Amino acid sequence: MTQRYLDASIEIETDTTGPIRAIQPEEVRRRSAAMERVRHVYAKTRRDNLLRDAFDELLEDLAERRNAGMNHGASNRGEGNQLVVLGESGAGKTTAIRRLLDNHALANGYPRNAPGCKIVTVTAPSPCNLAELGRETSHSLGYTIVRNRIDGPEVWRIVRERVRALEILVIHFDEMQHVVQTVNEIEMQKIRNVLKGLLVDERYPIGLIISGTPPTVRLVHPDRQVARRGRWIELPPLSISADSKMVGSFITQLAKEAELEFDESEQHQVVPRLLHAGTYQLGVVAEEIHNAIRVALRSSAIGLTLKHFGDAFANRTGNLAPWNPYFASNWVDLDATRVLVTSETAYCSDANTSSLNGTRGKSGGKK
């Protein structure tokens, strides 16, 4: 747990997991160390370049003077712009953005929001209304609002004061679909107005990054003043035809970090099934690889195989082999989002329920 302070460069961090490590045998600690190395590896793709270019443009706009005949200053900046990043759950939005910001020169101390860091990430709470989003933003800026009776406008007045005092330049609002899922149109318009106010603040405009699943578009797009500012990026699903080589290389790299072999013959078997099991979303695919590596390490294997991926999927979902994409012959027809499928009756019943609820029976990924 960390806390940021306005008037002193103090950071308090408590190691709450120490008691867990204290009781772990050495074998488990070694396995955890390997998994930490594995998770540290990031699969860089074309979308990372798109994000970098869009963020650089946002900063360029923010640094340019409104009046070229006057000195640079907080009140002589142009209005802020925004970067909107949309993608399905598991697409890797948060990881990609945080990777971008973590390596940025302005993000000294990110994501801990340490003193000197000019970029702050706020995860929208659920449920989320104007006041709750403001409270979470204030907390991310190092100030926890403890009063219960405080309305949304007052919360956001505190937020704007903190932004100016800490000289924050960019706020990243993540998981903003929580707003759309929670509030009515009147409350949503209040949140739109607050976000627009941060962009056009006469005294101290800032830039925004707004990320979430596709429904987030309902929050931002209806306001033309907001929608026309900055860039919009949608992270598409992976496909077997375009991304198999990249995913195969990614598995090989992660296996190497864990000191496991990964044969080319295994790669041809694993990659298509992995993409399907991962619902064609890069973040979910990465999690599937991590889970398979842990299974391999726990079994003291020397190589990563299809069976490790299948066993990891079974552990996670509770599905038996006929409904496991790594083991089933008809894997391309399976819905990889199902859990606890142990019979055809249960699978069909679940499919009918999904149909009645208006959800798709298949993952919808590109094959």
Question: What is the CATH fold-level name of the largest domain?
Answer: Rossmann fold
Spatial order of the strands forming the largest sheet: 2-3-4-1-5
Tell me, what is the CATH class of the largest domain?
Alpha Beta
Give the total of domains: 2
For the termini, the CA-CA separation is 43 Å
**Would you list the SSEs in sequence order as H and E?**
HHHEHEHHEHHEHHEHHHHH
Please state the CA-atom Rg, rounded to the nearest Å: 23 Å
As a percent range, the share of strand residues is: 5-15%
Instruction: Calculate the mean pLDDT score and round it.
Output: 89
According to DSSP, the number of beta strands is 5
Number of helices: 15
Which range best describes the helical content: under 10%, 10-25%, 25-40%, 40-55%, 55-70% or over 70%?
40-55%
Q: Tell me, what's the shape?
A: elongated
Low-confidence stretches: 1-11, 355-367
Question: Any guess at the CATH architecture of the largest domain?
Answer: 3-Layer(aba) Sandwich
Instruction: State the major sheet.
Output: 5 strands, parallel
Classified in CATH, the superfamily of the largest domain is P-loop containing nucleotide triphosphate hydrolases
Structure class: alpha/beta
3D structure, described in words:
The chain is of the alpha/beta class. The chain folds into 2 domains: 45-234, Rossmann fold, CATH 3.40.50.300; 240-356, Orthogonal Bundle (Helicase, Ruva Protein, domain 3). Helices cover 49% and strands 7% of the residues. It is built from 15 helices and 5 strands. Strands 2-3-4-1-5 form a 5-stranded parallel β-sheet, sandwiched between helices. The longest helix has 18 residues, at 46-63. It starts with 17 loop residues before the first helix and ends in an 11-residue tail after the last helix.
